[in-house]
Amino acid sequence: MSAPDEPFLDITHNPSWTLARSLPSILPSSPNITIIVPPNETRASYSHLLTSIPSLIAQHKPDLVLHLGLAAERDYFAIERSAPREGYHQVPDVERKVFSKAKGKELWGKQPERLESGLDLDAVRERCEEMYRLAEKKGMGKGSKRAKGNRSGDGGGTGGRKDVELRVTDDVGEFVCGFVYYLSLVEMGRRYGGKGGRDVVFCHVPWLDAGEDEERGVKVIEALIGAMVEVWRELQGNLGAE
Q1: pLDDT at residue 209, rounded to an integer
Q2: Contact between residue 44 and residue 94 where contact means Cβ atoms under 8 Å apart
Q3: pLDDT band at 130, cuts 50/70/90?
Q4: How far apart are the C-alpha atoms of 59 and 47, rounded to whole Å?
Q5: DSSP secondary structure string, 21-67?
Q6: Is 202 within 8 Å of 172 (Cβ atoms)?
Q7: Greater confidence, 120 or 163?
Q8: Which strands form 200-205's sheet, in the order they lie side by side?
Q9: pTM of the shown model
Q10: In whole angstroms, what separates CA 112 from the centre of its chain?
């Protein structure tokens, strides 16, 4: 589980890291699910990601990987289907450096032009919505009064805030979001190979104001993690039966 939190482009605060660092170490709805969040945010730097992400995967040996990033222009949570291999030479990172075409060819020349998550993301989205609604009804944590409205719930929201919406999209981009997604897909594929493998998800979060909006966002991410685990376990069962 990773997310950045540092100024880049015209963004001075990235709420994706606030959500990540606010997650519990154990998922409230499923005590047997452990959430590992690095103690420090991931830098929006190609070189930093290239060393830190493989190291984190090797250290923790996760079954699933979730990355969060900010899409400030969107008003919904977006689960991204895939990431491109190339294009990261176009936009400089926070260090004003790019990931060159030559470096990409050296590291990933034999990899597919595009890699997709190994999970059924449509099923993940559906489960996530169900879990989020259930959390609201049960009043889990502090969300009982805060998260009254989602797109499948009672609709109105509270305090004039917009309803929660979750979509599956395929627009992770060719900046550090796409880069870290592709990198993790490659690393998890190498580690687990044909036994499922590439069980990675990237979720773009919308701009969230500090306080209640971010707290509600934490509940969405908790539901997303629970949904990922359910879908992954079903996949593992199907693979074991083959």
Answers
A1: 86
A2: yes
A3: very high
A4: 19
A5: HHS-SB-TT-TT-B----SSPPPS-HHHHHHHHHHHHHHH--S-EEE
A6: yes
A7: 120
A8: 65-70, 200-205, 77-80, 166-169
A9: 0.85
A10: 21
